[in-house]
Structure to design on (636 residues):
């Protein structure tokens, strides 16, 4: 059976849907069609809609809600609260995942021109969904997988449920709450389609449940909850760490709780919903071209992702165990996290967090367990600190809505020193994407992203600064391209970080000095040479500033720098300060201070590693200055 569908060229409009603030923990819509009493005593069918952000069984508040509804529990517990013993009878849940055709395919592009999702990331999602189905099947359940618009597939599935009841039926549809415009538009369409699908005597409830963060929004110490959070991270962090406790991870539901209706196969068959309990689409079914599929299947041995990585909860939990417990790497995270080569300089949890394959509360709990049994230090705290950034950006997106996708960001129309007239020179944007800017650190990072779907945190900050400040290109082109390419793409963190990095959330504008950053975090040029092999023979002194070499030196190194040569000349003059930084009134500052065009230094030429930190990567010249260590607690 094939569900491959022919798609027209899809142009996806920007995320512009606004929304009205509602209760954060639980949003519900209830609609009945005549003869309410006909369904009062009927046991409801519960459709659990897994979204692309909660593909797991452990610590899944929305799934817990589906289980509770299936077992006849009407009260929705606070997210993260302890789960009481369930009554000894079976659940009645239809788990569903839909590959949304408005997000996948080689012709499905955003208004700014990037793919909505690369084939490589789509393959990662396919693996995660397959793993979720396997884990459900091991527990006697299953996963209905559809291809199409989620609202169409689930509305048709609801019709299949209705055909099994002559007196009307009660349906509960539950999913994780999302906060951004495209996701909210899908929810709105879902409610409308479900309402039209109901027949006489039938009723449905559509509920969204908050999840995917360490902290429950209802416990935030700000007037207005999420709508009252600060627009900068540090005051948010300080108050939350002092006043809030992380919820305890929820257990995986029991086999009995996850049980499907006995007539599940009949319901799916009768629904005609372009979905199946057996079918799994391929990249070709999702309308990716042969070329894109071949590129997605290539494995670059230089990748910083763990060997043999796959999407899914199974690999995610194994990675957490391997990093924290088996290889005992957590205790050195703070010192290694600014590395750029290899799989162990950072946790690499992000790809699985992005798809909800692993819960941030689960990771935080493992960090606390490690602190209690092995060692507690700045590194063990810092992983939880990074998870708090994820919380912040989801809540920031909830607060500001569609403005995080707008050219002026959350600054909006008001005057601000960071506002400027953006450029959109396609030659500059293409050079940046292709890693051909003439700045080796930028180029190496962009080539790594294109080849593997991953880029270090240090690299992301530098390429963002370069595109939006040095080149002054519209920051949304960068965010849009990262949405296409990143394996660990997370809508809140990606767009929030780009808006912030470009100065469009207000506050101080931080420019990263590319050359100094290169020397501080790629001491000796190992990373640059890994991804820019044309610079292999360039001496350490010039590897981060190859434009300074004379023609005779280039000849000796076997590389020619300049237009149409082996490696490009700098796309912008390294000695000229970007206009936005020279205004003098924006409060901007540079990261990696020093004149961009200053004298190059190399090993044996004055470049020294500061102090002797054995945990630090040999490519890192100095320790990273950082905020003061904080704290975190869990609920009793």
């Amino acid at each position: 059976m094939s569900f491959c569908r022919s798609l027209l060229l899809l142009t996806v409009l920007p995320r512009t849907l606004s929304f009205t603030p509602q209760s954060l923990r639980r949003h519900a819509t209830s609609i009945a069609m005549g003869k309410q009493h006909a369904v009062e005593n009927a046991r409801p069918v519960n459709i659990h809609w897994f979204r692309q952000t909660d593909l797991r069984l452990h610590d899944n508040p929305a799934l817990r809600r589906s289980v509770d509804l299936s077992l006849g529990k009407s009260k929705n517990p606070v997210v993260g609260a302890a789960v009481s013993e369930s009554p000894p009878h079976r659940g009645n849940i239809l788990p569903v995942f839909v590959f949304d055709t408005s997000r996948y395919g080689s012709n499905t592009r955003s208004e700014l021109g990037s793919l909505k999702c690369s084939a490589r990331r789509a393959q990662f999602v396919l693996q995660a969904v397959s793993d979720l189905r396997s884990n459900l099947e091991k527990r006697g359940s299953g996963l209905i997988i559809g291809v199409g618009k989620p609202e169409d597939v689930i509305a048709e599935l609801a019709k299949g449920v209705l055909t099994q009841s002559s007196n009307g039926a009660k349906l509960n549809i539950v999913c994780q709450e999302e906060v951004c415009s495209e996701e909210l538009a899908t929810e709105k369409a879902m409610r409308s389609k479900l309402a039209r699908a109901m027949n006489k005597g039938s009723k449905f409830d559509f509920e969204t449940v908050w999840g995917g963060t360490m902290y429950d929004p209802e416990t935030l110490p700000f007037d207005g909850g999420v709508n009252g959070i600060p627009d900068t991270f540090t005051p948010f962090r300080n108050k939350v760490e002092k006043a809030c406790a992380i919820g305890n991870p929820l257990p995986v539901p029991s086999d009995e709780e996850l049980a499907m209706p006995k007539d599940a196969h009949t319901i799916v068959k009768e629904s005609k919903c372009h979905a199946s309990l057996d079918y799994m689409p391929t990249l070709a079914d999702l309308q990716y071209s042969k070329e894109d599929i071949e590129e997605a299947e290539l494995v670059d041995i230089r990748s910083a992702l763990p060997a043999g990585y796959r999407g899914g909860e199974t690999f995610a939990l194994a990675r957490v165990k391997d990093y924290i417990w088996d290889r005992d790497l957590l205790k050195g995270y703070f010192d290694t996290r600014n590395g750029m080569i290899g799989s162990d300089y950072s946790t690499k949890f992000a790809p699985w967090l992005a798809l909800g394959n692993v819960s941030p509360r689960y990771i935080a709990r493992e960090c606390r367990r490690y602190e209690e049994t092995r060692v507690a230090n700045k590194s063990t705290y810092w992983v939880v600190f990074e998870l708090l950034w994820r919380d912040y950006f989801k809540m920031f997106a909830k607060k500001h809505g569609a403005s995080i996708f707008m050219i002026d960001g959350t600054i909006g129309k008001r005057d601000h020193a960071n506002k400027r007239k953006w450029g959109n020179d396609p030659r500059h944007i293409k050079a940046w994407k292709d890693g051909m800017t003439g700045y080796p650190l930028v180029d190496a990072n962009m080539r790594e992203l294109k080849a593997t779907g991953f880029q270090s945190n240090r690299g992301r900050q530098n390429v963002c600064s370069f595109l939006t400040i040095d080149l002054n290109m519209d920051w949304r082109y960068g965010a849009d391209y990262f949405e296409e390419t990143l394996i660990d793409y997370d809508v809140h963190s990606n767009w929030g970080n780009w808006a912030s990095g470009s100065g469009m959330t207000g506050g101080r504008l931080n420019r990263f000095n590319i050359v100094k950053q290169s020397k501080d975090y790629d001491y000796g040029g190992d990373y640059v040479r890994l991804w820019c092999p044309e610079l292999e023979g360039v001496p350490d002194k010039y590897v981060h500033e190859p434009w300074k070499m004379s023609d005779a030196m280039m000849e000796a190194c076997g590389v020619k720098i300049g237009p149409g040569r082996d490696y490009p000349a700098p796309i912008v003059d390294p000695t000229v300060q970007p206009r936005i930084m020279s205004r003098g009134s924006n409060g901007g500052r540079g990261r990696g201070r020093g004149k961009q065009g200053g004298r190059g230094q190399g090993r044996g030429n004055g470049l020294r590693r500061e102090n002797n930190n054995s945990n630090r990567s040999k490519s890192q010249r100095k320790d990273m200055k950082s905020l003061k260590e904080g704290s975190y607690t869990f609920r009793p």
Summary: Confidence is low (pLDDT under 50) at residues 1-24, 33-40, 593-609. The chain has 21 helices and eleven strands. The first strand starts at residue 10 and ends at 12.
